[in-house]
Amino acid sequence: AGVEKAVSLPFNPLGNSNAEAAVKSAKGIIIKMLEGRAENWDLYLDVVFARLPNELKDYSQVKAVLPDQEIDVKTLKKKIKRIDKILVPAIREQIVKTKEADNAYFRKRHKILEKPFPIGSSVMIKNVDKNKKTDPNYEGPFSVYGYTKNGSYILQDKSNAFLSRDIPTSHIKLISEDGIPTEEKQNVYVVQSILNHSGEAPNHKYLVRWEGYDSSWDSWEPPSMFDGTEAIATYWARRNAGQPSSEGKKQKLPKTVNKRKVESRQEKSVRRKARIAAITSK
């Protein structure tokens, strides 16, 4: 009938969580069947032991005290039929509802999608390097280029450069399935460094050296022209290094910018193909 039997050691019934869960379920079912008549709870039990379940005694050698009256087979069959008709379907329905609710909560908590974000959609990614409350929670925007076999995402920035790492679904926030507008991808340049600033806060402008261009291309740009705040934060951290803050405390030292170059996916693919070709040619 789909009823699972759970047992535990007689001298320590509290040591088996399965048995305790079964007792809890049985108690809940009996309470529903009482319909407000709590004093009739024993009518729904075939055998009642006149001992407390939490006594630390070994009952393995104790025989159950059964009633002298013989069991009426017809009455027993009616009870079993009632269990199969009412209790078992109710338990099954409750189990299904609980599983569906747990599954929905798990998928929501872990941001599991029925369908992945479409190729070309515009997304933001979680700022894993955040170390201050004022740092942004998300970075971007980026566009979805593809997927890995593990379900992570391959992303590109506005300059169509690949991110050096794959991004899991839990770190992605969808902005638009239409992707980054074409006009935003045009005339996109990478900041090599900020050289100087002008004006008073909060109306600063920054002298920018662009990656791949010489000093003749340096230009003054307002903060609104930057896609993120990392370049500006790095500039101020390096400029104020070692100087006391307005509260008299020493400023935190900036992070190093001499980062190890990480190969892009294209570079890895070219190197792997060259290695395979060298092996096969031998």
Automatic annotation (TrEMBL):
Subcellular compartments: Nucleus
Protein name: Chromo domain-containing protein
Sequence ranges assigned to domain Chromo in this UniProt record: 189-247
Stored PANTHER family: CHROMOBOX PROTEIN
CC per GO annotation: nucleus
Region: Disordered, residue numbers: 238-282
Keyword Phosphoprotein on entry: no
Chief place of localization: nucleus
Name of encoding gene: PARPA_00028.1 scaffold 106
SMART domains given in the database record: CHROMO (SM00298)
Keywords: Nucleus
Keyword Nucleus: yes
PROSITE patterns xrefs: CHROMO_1 (PS00598), CHROMO_2 (PS50013)
